[in-house]
Amino acid sequence: MTATPVLDALGADSSLASLAPRADFPLLAAQPALHYLDSAATSQKPQVVLDALTNFYTTANANPHRGAYALAAAATDAYAGARETVARFLGAKDADTLVFTRGTTEAMNLVANAWGAAHVREGDEIVITALEHHANFVPWQQLAKRTGAHLRIVELTADQRIDLDHLAALLTPRTRVVAITHVSNAVGSITPVAEVVRLVRETSPAIIVLDGAQGAPHLPVAFDTLGVDFYAFSGHKLLGPMGIGGVLGTRARWLECQPWQFGGDMIEWVNDHDSTWNVLPHRFEAGTPNAADAVGLAAAVRYLEALDMRAVREHELALLRSAHEKLAGLDGLTIYGPPPEQRSGVLSFTLADVHPHDLATILDQHGVCIRAGHHCAQPLMRRLGTSATARASFYVYSDASDVDALVHALVEAQRIFASVAD
Amino acid sequence: MTAPSGLPASLSAMYQELILQHYRAPHGRGVPAAPGVRVGARKNPLCGDAISVGVLLDGDRIAEVGFDGQGCSIATASASMLTEAVRGRSVAEVKAMATAVEAMLRGEAVEGLEGDLRALAGVARYPQRVGCARMAWLALGDALEG
Fold this sequence. Notes:
The structure holds 2 protein chains of 2 kinds.
Chain A: H1 5-10, H2 26-30, E1 35-36, H3 47-59, H4 70-89, E2 98-101, H5 104-119, E3 125-129, H6 138-147, E4 150-154, H7 164-170, E5 175-181, H8 193-203, E6 207-211, H9 223-226, E7 230-234, E8 245-249, H10 251-255, E9 267-270, E10 275-277, H11 291-307, H12 309-328, E11 333-336, E12 346-351, H13 356-365, E13 368-369, E14 371-373, H14 378-384, E15 389-393, H15 400-418
Parallel strand pairs in A: 1-13, 3-4, 3-5, 5-6, 6-7
Antiparallel strand pairs in A: 2-8, 7-8, 9-10, 11-12, 12-15, 14-15
Helix pairs in contact in A: 3-11, 4-11, 5-6, 11-12, 12-15, 13-15
Chain B: H1 9-14, H2 17-24, E1 38-44, E2 49-58, E3 61-70, H3 73-86, H4 91-105, H5 127-145
Antiparallel strand pairs in B: 1-2, 2-3
């Protein structure tokens, strides 16, 4: 594969090595020609995570919290240890305020049901933004419909950041919930959380719910100092297994919640006609917990801690700057979102009259995996005036060769579509 | 059946010049505005694309047909080709044609399909894109049933 003149002109930057060795990731090691640029959808998994899963099932597999035998105690300890590890990673001292869920989507549904349904009344207001992933949009939209509350949507600046002036204008004493993304999955914008917290606390009694699905994997998070009420995240986007994630909450807010799923583990005592509830965090974890994936997630966050989340952020920013500069040099290419410094490692773009779906197919032929579509953010797409964008996203195993492969394949896509004259 | 040079065979089989021409300058753009027009619409929830097809029947024949919406090259070219292929045909002929197109998109060898439509055969190699080509035909089916 020879470099095109366009690539030569832009200059191949080989100085950006991956932060984590690709050899640590069995899928990437087995496919050296693959350029996986869809980590915002899900991350690849290091061997240590797969080993942790196998180790749980081969040495500690039993139903946690249920057996009097030593093996059940080992499973209980492994699960509790995973909770301690993940809570520490996210900067929460009180590990019992971390409730494990299947991921961010379930976490948001939990908060909307467990806290929202108990506290949001007709005429109250729920504030979300036009930047939200459907997982932090639809649960609140539907809660508003069910309760008769008003849904308020914060609009965006011209470069797809949350318009803080508009947020301030929407907040009232009737605002009960402000649910905002920490980092936009579609365009990467990073929310200035401290500013949002200040605005909300000044004018309303609302709880603040942060969607950390794209925050926790890419930025250092210190829950105890963020000043928000709930913080939801997904394990599979931060090197962990699919099917595990969670939500941190302040103890005070958790105690205001009603149980939302009923069954084993979450009860204290079941009488014929009423029941009492277990303590945190079990009250919100009905049924057999996903202990194995929690243990896998703990291995993932230990791996990230060893890399250092500040280094992760710096690495992604360097890749983003490089990619931003190279893509901006291509004819007809539009990049959405704020400047690199105000976004995570996500590059959302369209290329003149080449539909993102066509881009994804052509790039795939070059071993470049990107996402094409609405990114589960149709309200945002409507505001961008498009049905879809192409999105490349970086992570700890990404390097300069991934950026160069992306640019090369985009030039190729341009060539295909330019081959037919108007 | 020419395609840009230097591409993998399967890719050039999908992105034929004919497909790209229909994408660049689609035929049958615009659902007819006449009274009695039947419209069917389909969306692709995966990518957010949407195509609607409108037909005006004269007895058993499709007197006028057009499409609206936004789609990728495959979705747009398929809709454009559809309008060319079905105009003036009987409903029974069009339903048989839709069945043949569906079979072609599944990778089956089909006979009886004429003209530009045959260019869609290359899409069968890309299962993620078959839904794009299918959208206009499903919308047409809805319009005829509706």
